[in-house]
Amino acid sequence: MSVLASQDSSLSRRLEADLAQVRRLFAQELESDLDCVNDLAGHAQRYHGKMLRPMLVLMTAMAVQPQGDTTEQKHLIAAAVVEMVHMATLVHDDVLDDAAMRRRGATINQLHGNEAAVMLGDYLISHAYHLCSSLGSPEISRMIAHATNTVCEGELLQLANRHNLELDEPTYFTIITRKTASLCGACCRVAAELSGCKQNVSDALYGYGETLGIAFQVIDDVLDLTGDPQTVGKTLGQDLVKGKLTLPLIHALATCGGAGGVELAGLLKSQGEAGLSEAKAGAGAGRVREILAGGRSLDYAREKAASLIGRAKSDLMDNLEDTPARAYLLGLAETVVERRL
Amino acid sequence: MSVLASQDSSLSRRLEADLAQVRRLFAQELESDLDCVNDLAGHAQRYHGKMLRPMLVLMTAMAVQPQGDTTEQKHLIAAAVVEMVHMATLVHDDVLDDAAMRRRGATINQLHGNEAAVMLGDYLISHAYHLCSSLGSPEISRMIAHATNTVCEGELLQLANRHNLELDEPTYFTIITRKTASLCGACCRVAAELSGCKQNVSDALYGYGETLGIAFQVIDDVLDLTGDPQTVGKTLGQDLVKGKLTLPLIHALATCGGAGGVELAGLLKSQGEAGLSEAKAGAGAGRVREILAGGRSLDYAREKAASLIGRAKSDLMDNLEDTPARAYLLGLAETVVERRL
After folding, report:
1. What gap in Å lies between CA A143 and CA A159, rounded to an integer?
2. ipTM value of the model?
3. Dihedral (CA of B47, B53, B55, B58) sign
4. Helical H runs in A64-198?
5. Could you give the CA distance from residue A45 to residue A22 in angstroms, rounded to a whole number?
6. A157–B contact, CB cutoff 8 A
7. What's the number of domains chain B is made of?
8. Which of A12-26, B182-196, B264-278, B290-304 has the lowest mean pLDDT?
9. How far is B133 from chain A (nearest CA, A)?
10. Does pLDDT of A297 surpass 70?
11. Nearest by CB to A149, which of B116, B120, B130?
């Protein structure tokens, strides 16, 4: 994360130490007396990536306590909770997407079958709530559960719109706001509430997290169309296979018109057909990428993400004092649109 | 439920009214602004069956308040929470079992695919925790989450032992205690704690619920081998197809010896083989049933369940005053071994 490398180094060291603690809490919570459970849960721990969501919790906590720049045990626990929720969604997402690769390794469903992946996801979500209840705050438990309710709604709306070539931008944004951004917003709100922030600050921080989450998903969807699986480290191109219309495709269908539009619609339709050979699917996806590369739709999506990030940064600058932690959060927002993986 | 029909009728009416309230709370909690979510959640509500778990919560609450025989809003909420947890496990179980029928209707996975079923299960479990946090008690939230942790462990242990012909009785009982009985125990403990019971009473009630749950699962497993799908109202015989060794089979393998034992082991092994035709699987399952019908293994399992129910009843009689609600709980325990569906 280039933007973040230049940030305050004592803050970065602090964050690194905190994230190591979060990983320990995470592993400790999942420990079982059953070997078969530990084996699977251990595999899931390879899924820790950038740990964006725990970072949001920890940095928000630091940013709202300008004097101390410190985090407390409750923030570490909350960070482990959101990471566990996120990992549960990854494990179930990979089942829904038939994905074979994540974090440069085989997925749980690929290694142990869909059944083990469904149950491991349940085990993770259950432990997330279990750990969360140790905070002793029904309000925080309710915020986390509200966020997961919303994530599921987003996923269900997305499922209901598979292969819907008429999916419009507002519905696309409803889907990604719920399935991805609501948890990012909750990360910031939970940290703010644990630190006793006023309602308006908590709301502004939720706004920052949510907007950042929307931008993150827009770029994730662009990468699914343009990225290299080896660089990104996970199965890509599944959005086409699974009939998920994302922002560049919605824009292209709405704007390219004429023969190009008809060809694109035809290609997207055929991607969703049962019994399509892998070779044909690959050729079709390649042609979709060519059409996108020749138009403005990928740039349109990237610009949308950049504009969202601008709004997320304003939310922070208007509501928090200028501290190293705030600067870190502003930098974090930029990495979301700069990322290639 | 014949045993229960003869019970105190004012208590039964009270329970019926409470269960209607629980169904309302359940439906209300799941309401969404998205039609596609309401459609799926509405379908899940057809899964309300005997509502054993809410009954355990409500009747325990009445049994520990001998003067009043009343339940409060908090008990109704807890009853809706455990029903929602249970329904989430049914929805995901049907995915794991490839089951096509439940409560005399098509399963969610059959109607809408595994992906929608995985996500609907997640939506249910998320709302269960959300509703639970409205009780304002981190201790109760933690008990529910602890129970769901344990349920997942049981399911994962069961998955790890699919097609394991050497599965022994202790491991079988560990599986069913965790996957089924822990939630039944939690129903009683949650009700006891909400009513401010002493630790020893709460422990005894947990014991009653857990032991009843173990017996329930033993009989459920017997019915999977012997029941009529039309009477029971769900897909049966899946334990054989999915390589789940249950108590009658464990007993038969351990006791029938000689040629019979070899034949049974061979049949069970072939049931798990990929690419087995439906006709061959059906013939194999039929022969397994014949072998079981000729031996003592089904009776062995039924007697085990009956003895467990005896223990569950003692737990109650030793620790609760003699009230109509206690009598109801004793009768409920008996229905578990008497049931044919």
Report:
1. 24
2. 0.93
3. negative
4. 73-96, 108-133, 138-160, 169-176, 182-194
5. 12
6. yes
7. 1
8. B264-278
9. 5
10. yes
11. B130
**Cα(A30)–Cα(A42) distance, integer angstroms:** 9
CATH of the domain at A314: 1.10.600.10
- Which of A84, A141, A163, A183 should be substituted to probe chain B, the one whose Cβ sees the most B Cβ atoms within 10 Å? A141
Unique residue bearing structure tokens 């071994």:
B337
Q: Give pLDDT tens digits for B111-170.
A: 888 889 999 999 999 999 999 999 999 999 999 999 999 999 999 999 999 999 999 999
Tell me which residues of chain A, numbers 1 to 40, contact chain B at a CB-CB cutoff of 8 Å.
Answer: 32, 34, 36-37, 40
pLDDT of residue B340: 58
A residues 63-122 near B, CB within 8 Å? Answer: 88, 92, 95-96, 114-116, 118-122
SS3 A294: coil
pTM equals 0.94
Instruction: Please give, rounded to a whole number of angstroms, the shortest distance from the CA of B105 to a CA of chain A.
Output: 22
Q: Which residues sit opposite A101 in a β-bridge?
A: A106
What are the distances in angstroms from CA A62 to CA A82, A193, A194? 17, 13, 12
The answer to whether the beta carbons of residues A78 and A135 sit under 8 Å apart is yes
* Most confident of the following: A248-257, B125-134, B318-327: B125-134
Range of the structural domain that residue A80 is part of = 2-338
3-class DSSP state for residue B328?
Answer: helix
